[in-house]
Structures are given as C-alpha cells and as structure tokens.
Design brief:
Elements: H1 2-57, H2 63-68, H3 70-78, H4 87-103, H5 106-116, H6 120-129, H7 139-146, H8 153-162, H9 169-173, E1 177-179, E2 185-187, H10 195-226, H11 229-240, H12 247-258, H13 263-271, H14 284-307, H15 313-320, H16 325-353, H17 357-362, H18 370-379, H19 384-408
Antiparallel strand pairs: 1-2
Helix pairs in contact: 3-4, 5-6, 10-11, 10-14, 10-16, 12-14, 14-16, 15-16, 16-19, 18-19
Amino acid sequence: MNGAVGMNANTSALAVDLKTQQSRAERLRSVTSFLLTGPYLLFILITFALPIALMLARSIQNPELSETLPATATAFREWRADGMPPEELVRIFVRDVAQARENQTIALVAKRLNFEIPGFRGILLHTARDLPDPQTTQLLRQLVEIDVHWGEPRYWAAIKHAAPRYTVRYLLATLDREFAADGSIVQTELTNRIYLTLLGRTLWISLAVTMICVALGYPVAFLLASLPTRHSNILMLLLLLPFWTSLLVRTTAWLVLLQNEGLINDAAIWLGLWDQPIQLVRNRFGVYVAMTHILLPFMVLPIYSVMKGIAPSHMRAAFSLGAGPVRSFLRVYLPQTLSGVAAGVLLVFIMSLGYYITPALVGGPGDQMLSYFIAFNANTTLNWGMAAALSIVLMLCVGVVFVLYSRIIGIDRLRIG
C-alpha cells in the first residue's frame, strides 16, 4: 500500500517537472522568435510606421504663429473676436511683427495666414515693410492707412484662428468646413468646396476601375486555369510582362496611343470606325484605360490562384446530376472563386485610391484624385498640414474598406496568390 502511494507521488512529481520544463521551453521559444523578428519589426517601425505617424501629426500641428509671434498668439487666444481688436492687442501684434521682421521669420507666419485667407501673405509682408512705431497711438488707423484690409474684422479673426499651437482647421477643410469669425464651424464658400467632391470622385474612379478589372480579369483567370500548363505559362508571361516596365513608362505609352494623332485614332479612322480623331486622353476614359491596364494583374492573380485549387470533378459531378453548364457554373464553380474575387477587389480598390501618376498624366483637370492634391499641398504650396489631413482621409477610406471586407468576407479568407 505504501509502495503504491509512493509511486503515485513520484508520478505526480514527474508530471509537474515535465510541465515546468515544457513551460520553460515554450518561453525560450517565444523569446527566440521575438529576438529573430525584433530587428525586422524595429526596421518597419523606424522606416515606415514612425514617418507615417509624424506625417499624420502635422494635420493638427499649428506652430507657425505661436513660435513666430508668441505674444500675439497668447493675447489673441484670449480675445473673443467680436469685431475689431482693442488698441492694446494691436500694439502687441505690431511689436511682434517688428521683431519677426528683424529675425527674418515674418515670411513663415505670412505663409500660414495665407492658408486662412488667400492674399493675406502679401498684406502682412507689405505691412511689415511700412510698420508704424509700436509706441505711437491709433495704431489700428495707421495699419488701415497702410492696407485697407486691416479694417475688416475677418483678417483679425484669422490671426486668432491661427494662434493655437494645435488646430483642427485642416481636418475641417477636408469636409469643406471652416471657422467663422465668431469661432463657429460653417461651410466654406461655394467656390472653395472642393474636397468632398474630390473624395467622391476618388471613390467613384476607384470603384469603376475595380469593376472593370473584375469584368476583364475573371475570364482571363478562368482561361489561365483551364488551359494546359504549357499554354497557360505563355499567357501568364504576357500578363506579367507589364510588371517589368516602369509605371511612368506604361502611363506615358497610353498617352501616346490615345492622343488625337495616336495609333488608336489613326487605326480607327483607317478602318472607318469614325471620321475624325476622338478625344481619348486628358479625360475620364483615358484614366479608366490606363489604370485598368496597370491594375489588371492584381485582379487576375488572386482569382487564378483560387481557380487552380478547384477540382474539375466538382463541375463533372454537377453535370452528372443534370445541371446545365450555366447552372453548374453559377451554383458550383462561381461560389468557390468568390474569395479570390474579393481579394482582387480589395487589392485593386485600395491601390486605386492612392493613384497619382496615371490620372495626373492621362486625366484632365476634372479627373485628378485625392493623392494629386496631397502631393500638390506637400510639394507646391508646402501646406504640410493640409497634405496630412488629406492623407488621414485616404487612410480612413482604406480602413473602412478593410472593415467591410472583414465583416462580409473575413480577413482569414484573404488569398493573394
């Protein structure tokens, strides 16, 4: 009896010891895996995630006026912006502008105020050159004599709106909203309401290109999956051949082909399809053609990878049960390929959202997408805050697409290739 008890105790101790060793081995494996992947994660964090986060933070940063005219920024934050500013507030502003002129930093705040009201930059720079003495009286009247715009309350309200170190002005602008003189949020003027229209245009072009790629890519993928390997490899080579050519070169090639004196117009006139050259480029048609050509492989490959995994016996079984070719395709084959179609739609739509070069080259002024204005604000007007705010809008669109995909299809069913 005592021997049985001792044997059970030894067995329990051995089981505990084995469990301890197993836990230790699992911890060691986890630490080893982390150490192996740690450098890669650190590289991604430093070169990818951190720059994106810093860029997006620019959408709410507003340091120009608070750093260049610090006393003005502090005083104007307390002002209620109800009409014209008091004399003491104007005096603080004149002192700060004089100091900024000496420090040669006045252009920085002038550029920032120009985002609030177009033309404000020239007004401030002109005023800074002929600035009155801050110790004199009736400074507001003297400023109005230099430039009549200082007699309008909205210019002083613009200074107040630019005073905080952080602002949602750029985010509001993406929704065609702005701050009124009293601080309330109102719609921008009709001539400046462009960003909601721009967002709708971007979504529509991306959706249209995605649907065209589905319509063209599904038959191509079906053909590749059905042909013998010897023939399908040749077609696959032709499909992937554009990847070996620069995106800029491919887009420029379509610009040459679709122009009025291009090969397509010349061939159509020679065949008698139309009598005079048709405008096929610098419009929406050219954008659809060029973007579809570039993005079509990203639709074909996911669908093809799914189709290759479908056993031919499924269709034969449907035929043997009396279903015709159309019904067999719709009820048996098509449902099995939907995961590939969904993956292709996800890839093409998200890539279309961020397209810049192709619409800029083959599209007209009314065909530019959101990414064009991001580049315009970042490179031309140097309005990094607006560029960052538009980038947030683009990222939100991508996030919404991912959420819809995960709800409808499921991320676990995503098959790229």
